Amino acid sequence: MKTLDRYLLKEMLLPFFRTILFLTVLMVFGQMLKLAEQFSAMGLSAMAILKAICYSFAPAMSMILPLAVLLAAILAYGRLAADGEITAFAAAGYPFSRLLFTPLFFGLLVSTASLFFSVYGEPWGIRSLQKLLSDSVKESLSREIRPDTFYNWLPGIMLYTGGRSTNSTLEKLLFVDTRNSEGILAVTAQKGQLLPLSDSSAILFHLSQGAVYLGQDEKLTKVAYRTNDYRLDLGKLSGKGEGLFVERQGMTLGELTKAAADTNLSNRTRQRYLTAFHKKLALPLAGIIFSLLGALLASSRQRNSLAKGLIIGVAVVGIYYYIMRTGELAAIRGDMPAWLAMWLPNMIFIVFTTSYALVKNLRKG
Known about the structure:
Layout: H1 3-32, H2 36-42, H3 46-82, H4 85-91, H5 101-142, E1 149-151, E2 157-164, E3 169-177, E4 184-195, E5 202-216, E6 219-233, E7 238-239, E8 242-243, H6 253-260, H7 267-282, H8 286-298, H9 305-333, H10 338-364
Antiparallel strand pairs: 1-2, 2-3, 3-4, 4-5, 5-6, 7-8
Helix pairs in contact: 1-3, 1-5, 3-5, 3-8, 3-9, 5-8, 6-7, 7-9, 7-10, 8-10, 9-10
């Protein structure tokens, strides 16, 4: 690596890591606040909360890294432009295109790291977080439960119990689960026994003498039973759009591919899985595009180029994610192929960045 590349890389590294630290605190702790009430109700220890923060770090990094490299490039090249160093490089005989080698190389490294977190970090982090949440609820249920008390550990799930006759048998149970898109699910039982599922993120109740209610508004369907096993899935961290992460983020590429090809699922559901598959691969590529574009935006000779670059950088991020989100919704509805919807933002920004770089190179050349 030549002296110029080392110098430019050094200029980008410090703002890059500072931005990562800032965005990590902002995004991870912001996400954790969504489950703070549930964690508090379960009485999580400080160590468990720390683990939850660490598990949230890996899924967030696939989004943090592209943003961090964009701001790092803007701050680094904005300072170089403000101090006249870019002009000095041109006077020394360096073409402007030569100054783009470093952000291109750095963006490639960042995209590789982002791809790793997207493909491997997200499933590991989300599944670990699910297991932590599941174990915490199981531990809470295994402790003494106060009679005539409503428990709301997870968004969309409510549990009521009238008390317990033994350590493992609960009395007068009521479950209400509003996460089902088809309507509210309610389960009542005179008695229920908690059955251990050590290798699962679910709790299994063996219920007796009760009924199941399913439907919307006043159209409820009642099914009475003498005995019934009710599985309460604690792995689904989102309910009615709220929660920490979407369930599809916790799936590997192989699982998403398999789910997208499952003909037993509805077309809309399969489109969701197929869209998530392409999103995991397309989003990390933004690191290369953002790194180059940030350097281009901030390398103007105008004295206020840094401020303008930051404003435009924020706009770039907003436009990029708006196009991706719009395409994602269109793909789920079936209005656009999933691969096109997720790769379209990269296609648009690659064309724009390349054209902008050619024009800027001709002007400065």
